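Lab meeting prep.
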Amino acid sequence: MNTVAMKAATFLFWVLAITAWVQGWDGLLGYLPTIGLIVAGIHVLEVLLFWVAFRKKSTNVRLDAIQVFIFGMFHLQRFMPKS
């Protein structure tokens, strides 16, 4: 799958997680805010990785750090060397 589609799916996840938190959904969808907190924690670690290893490759460090927090590895891939 391409990066744009994965970023769209990640954005949809964030919208659903925030909506579930605000509206207090029950059942399986009620777990979305908890999962969102776990994913946010992982994305904080990815922002730290970006900041330490890849910020020199960025033209707009602040915007890229925000996008890494929102989209995680799907945005971070652009800074990683292709193998």
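Slide two material, second protein:
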Amino acid sequence: MRLDKYLKVSRIIKRRTLAKEVAEQGRIYINGVQAKASSNVKAGDELMIHFGQKIVTASIDNVQENARKEEATMMYTILKEERVQQTEE
């Protein structure tokens, strides 16, 4: 499944267009490699997403074409959330 669609279906990011923009800005990594919106994801992959001042690392548990709200949180496991301090120049 495409990365942008997975992020929307799993409700990690609310809109697919926003997921695509985040990927185009180089803020998403799959297994340590910078990902594009069209990158394929599969169960077992590890996502690292930069949300502003926060970095979220998640493991993909399963991939579904569509999921209800209750099922969406079972598609991934949050491994780590860390805050990033911005340095002033």
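Talking points for slide two:
Strands lie at 28-30, 33-34, 46-51, 54-60, 76-83.
The CA atoms of residues 54 and 83 lie 4 Å apart.
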